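Q: What would this complex look like in 3D?
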Amino acid sequence: MSFVEYGEYIQEGDIAIVFLGRESMFPVKAQHGTQTQTKYGVIRHSSDLIGKRFGSKVNCSKGGWVYVLHPTPELWTQNLPHRTQILYSTDISMITMMLELKPGSVVCESGTGSGSLSHAIIRTIAPTGHLYTVEFHEQRAEKAAEEFREHKVAHLATVKNQDVCKEGFGVVGVADAVFLDIPSPWEAIGHAKAALKEEGGRMCSFSPCIEQVQRTCLAMDELGFKEISTLEVLLRVYDVRSVSLQLPDFGMETQVEGDPKETGTGQQATAICKSGVTPKDMAGHTGYLTFATKSLL
Amino acid sequence: MEKISVDHRTIKEGNYVVLKRENVFKAVQVQIKRKVIFEKQWLHLDSVIGQLYGTSFEVAAGGTLQAPKPNPEKNPKETKEAGMDNRNIVDDGRSQKLTRDDIETLKEQGLKGQEIVQQLIENSSTFRDKTEFAQEKYIKKKKKKYDNTITVLKPSTRILALMYHGREPGKICHLRYDTLAQMLTLGNVHAGSKIIVFDTCAGLVLGAVMERMGGYGSVIQMYPGGEPVRAATDNFGFPEHFYKTLHEFPLCKVNLLLDGTLSLDKDKKETVSAVDESNGAMSKAPQDSVQKMGEEVEGEKDSAQASPEVDTMEVTSELPEDKEKEERAARRENKAPVVYILQALEKKVKQEEKRKKHLEAAALLQGRNADGLVIAGRFHPTPLVLSLLKFVAPSRPFVIYCQHKEPLIECHTKLRERGGVIGLQLSETWLRHYQVLPNRTHPMLLMSGGGGYILSGITVAMDTATSSGPQKTEEPAPKRQKLQDTES
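A: Here is my prediction, written as structure tokens for the whole assembly.
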């Protein structure tokens, strides 16, 4: 397995996602002789993981079971160790498509942060593209590089530990796309323009606050970026549930319409329907995405 | 390699491009001496050949596109004169001193859009009294109307998804571009995988998947009816080798394939023998010559069509398993004149090609180890998913798009009953655009009302034993379990 290539069976050194439920999963690295504790009991790597097919059910010692899944950038996003705030798959999807990323694309990114977006970019541009990612925090840069090696994608990414606003991306005229997720993106627009190919390319900046967006848009406009467009994308998740509604009792004469289900207790009648129920709370804002094109002239 | 990359940047005859004016797109194929209509204007695209993608052109008289000037003139910033508010501006309908006829005359004189806008400003008595913001808005509005700049772009999922959503949302089942973006991510579509696609969105989803695969791996398009639809796919202008990774398989044969009654090798042999039988002279010819014969038939087609007996020769055995009919046809052919035989042969060649394609796709499907399933369209998703999921390996993502929520709710329920899937999620995205201008930043007045719904999940191994564990996988655990390494 690797993050850019599906494998069938779990091998020594592979990352697998232990799935206990939608809200409850975690990554493990399969190693002979190692054990992992879950609330359903212990998983012994040698017998329970290694050699098993991804997607198998693994019985744990206490009689419960879990599924072991092949890692994907999306599962990784839900499970990675946070070193910073991260981008989630909804924004990542939009960034990937609007930056026109595909196999072979050369992409510049800053900051690397926890590597949530980085993994998604690498997945999309493999096997012939490359990611140049810049992180000014030394430990975070080192950790990201280590993860890329562990996930067998190090050949597709270069991590640089420098300040993108001062020193840029370390490459000039090579990128098809640039992504910025830093506190003062307007200070890096010039470097973004320089990193993009001469014939042009796409760029995106992610900012939580509208004031940041305004300064960024001004800087983009001054440097000749075209098609400047700011948008926001929100995910709404629906919980599929059976909803039962009590039918009113109008007395003896009333004929109940439809297909009511009689419940056991007395003469109470209810109608059951399936519904997509929105959760009580939802993420109302992550950040504004500002896209722009570096054009020919 | 350098040469190739340079090559990709220039527009050549036969290339698929997208024309862009303001926020309106249109996909066309560049062909010499061919007129295309765009935004109520006839255009000739001859002069774009040899230019770089992303170049902007000015529309000149007669619809020819003028190549860009090396130095685009920057509109000089005049000394601004503007009013504070609109308390004294009265709408008497006479602020513009130019009449419609005057403007038409200006246009006929061949004035550039920019110059017409300048004339309009100079002849507007209220322009100077407008606020600075109102002046900007006025210029922007007029520019949109008179400025005739057209940019020629290289097609991409972004541009084509935007284009279809803007122009013909009905053709793509109202699949909004942000929803398409979610599908590609949730489906983990990437180079080297084997993806099954069912798409009744004119082939837009198929094209988007192919773009993300970059010609690595394989795509199997499942299609309803006689032929797969790829109108939008063609607009991507993929290189030839991308199509080598694209396979097709008809939905109407899925059950046969699943039952194992679609005995492929046997069918293949039968077809070949039928072709041989159809012409005594060719009965000993090697299989390869069938192709050649088919080409020769092309020339004789006209004379064959003139014959009144053509109808009787229709060998419409669409279904390969319909071998009786085939044999009967073959017997009849033995007695028919040479022209008919050749015509029937041509049909056979086509059928054989089609069958060959189906065989290849069937072989890919039979492994039941696809890396993903992407469904988008106007068919009821439940039966599609229930049967197509059988071709997908465990621990692989699948995504289903539907314009409406209710079918996906049913599908969700059925999938839970079936088992073999986890992490089911029914979702929708909202997309909001912003106007960002100094002191005038706000969400756009108009936003899209709905971009459809997605049901996604991950396949897992099906329960074979009756081990009904004590736990429900979908139930959230109270606490996240920490990984414990005994190794230190």
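A: To summarize the key features: The domain at 157-261+356-459 of chain B is CATH 3.40.50.150 (Rossmann fold). The two ends of chain B are 49 Å apart (CA to CA).
Q: Very helpful, thank you.
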